[in-house]
Amino acid sequence: MTQHVHFPLQFDGRGRTRDDDEALWIRGLIEQVLFTVPGERVMRPDFGSGLRELVFAPNSPELAATTQFLVQSALQQWMADLITVELVEIDVADSRLSVNIQYSIRRTGMRYQENFQQGGG
């Protein structure tokens, strides 16, 4: 059985590394791709999406389209072996960024819709 380490790293009640089922593990990986700033990881300087920098950018239809493209590209680059991205929707209001992603897990075919948020509310 494959172990999927929980993100962020935690310990379970027995003092061992907490594991997740595949769906929660993949959700954690997506979150890492979305909210990691390129250059933040020393050994993978191009990892991430740069999404956090866009929270305070002036809101416009062009920014929403660019952000949607940025997120979809990053997910396809870093997660293509695990998921198929079906839909990415971006909502920016004041300093809150909401990303709605619809995807399916390649191994099981199960479909999920997840919402990720960054910033104040």
Automatic annotation (TrEMBL):
Annotated SUPFAM superfamilies: gpW/gp25-like
InterPro entries: IraD/Gp25-like (IPR007048)
Protein name, entry field: Phage baseplate assembly protein W
Pfam families: GPW_gp25 (PF04965)
Domain IraD/Gp25-like: 26-108
